[in-house]
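Homework help board

Subject: predicted structure for assignment chain

Our instructor gave us this sequence and asked us to write out the predicted structure in token form, then describe one feature. I got the tokens but I'm not sure how to describe them. Can anyone check?
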Amino acid sequence: MKINPKYLPLLIGATLATGIWIGGNLNFPDQNHFFAKNNTKNKLNKLLDFIDNEYVDAVNTDSIVNLTVDTILAKLDPHSVYIPPSEQAEVAESMKGDFVGIGISFYMYKDSVTVIKPIENGPSAKAGILSGDRILYAGKTKLFGRKLPNDSLFTTLKGEVDSEIELLVYRKSAHKKFKIKVKRAVIPIKSVDAALLLNPTTGYIKINRFAETTYQEFLTGLNRLKKQGAKSLVIDLRDNGGGYMEEAIAIADELLPNKQLIVFTKNKKGSIEKTFATEKGSFETGKVFVLLNENSASASEILAGAIQDNDRGIILGRRSFGKGLVQREMDFDDGSAVRLTIARYYTPTGRSIQKPYSKGNENYFKESDSRFATGEMYSKDSIKVIDSLRFKTKKGKIVYGGGGIVPDIFVPLEVEKGTESSAYLLQSGVVGHCIFELLDKNRSDFNGLTLEQLKTKMNASDRYFTAFKKYVSQNGLDLNLDKNKALVKTELTAELARQLLGEDYFYQIILKEDTMVKAVLKQ
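My token output:
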């Protein structure tokens, strides 16, 4: 393989100005001087040619180029990254907001592709696929007994819109196998997990990332909540690592009055671009609360910063991650891409919330872990702020730059989720797997139950709590869950509601015990 030279200047950081200079100076006087300055760039080309043509062993030069690109980008900042072709399609699909497939939520249970829940009104649901079904074959491709990775399964089940795939299904509840044809369709990937009322006048919207469809999903949920009587709004950005800043800006525009500054960016040349709210905002007067934690980053921080700096609402939770860099994605012909940092963004008061990254990428991404040791996860007084990065909002509130959004109302981790070990266990996915396996053994016990009946059944005894403790122990975890029995039972009930009834029912249960939400409702 020979590398196309036109990509190498980009990979090693040459600027566009060089190309403009060449094109605008056809009669430049000293060609040798110019090419001497580019010897380093030409050297990389020649080296790859030497390896291709002369090296004694066969070498995949693609892997060498990828390694070179990774090494170069690692010298820049933690968020300038190379995305190989094998990952780029999946990343792009996630941010696009939909894909073409058969519409099921599944996981590998033992050796089989097992349906957790078909998506409501999706292709599989319309074809008759049920929760608990095992998909044995997709066309002629055997899916069971092979321990196939998820990306391989996704590829098998995806296809063109309206294309048909024949599935061989085993239905455990009926002890039978049957073939069924499913016509693939566009399946939405939701970035808004829930939009519901916490009480008659307080709406709640949970955003898991900022994708192409996030603003429209948010607006749909907001309009529905307003019709239901919402006068105040809680926006939950916990564990939201960001995405498209344009989507966060569009949401901020719905909340801020006309001409208020949302965010501004500054590039290496010092060029500043400011973005202001317009007249179109549909929720400019009701109370606004934003929930953050240490995993809220990037676009989440843009939205939270705009609300905080404009004195538009209250930020609750813990200090956010601290990413104030803007990336642009640039594609290569082979399907790969480079995501390059092109600017810094600043909140309306002028603060950068980018935390330092001079000690290397590993330290940078593990900085959140150090907050346990410093006590920051448990006490607002332990948050280190830099007095020289002190800013004031229009109403005189003090805010700080230099590493994340510091909340107005602090909610410590131990209060929010009980002990740390229980918190991380309940967030790990193990609850979902345990509940599925309990359902798989006794699905008929829960068929047709309403939410209230389901909650009554789960709380009538410790049967399911005991089953979960056994499940955790069998999976090699030695945890004392008895201290957090009420919390665990709530999580189990919520997950059961999710798998049987849908996502909104999960949040209806879980939010009643959520300390950050309780703090909002006290305001």
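Reply (TA_rk): Your tokens look well-formed. For the description, you could write something like this. The chain has four domains: 5-19+29-75, 98-188, 192-411, 420-521. That's the kind of observation they're looking for.
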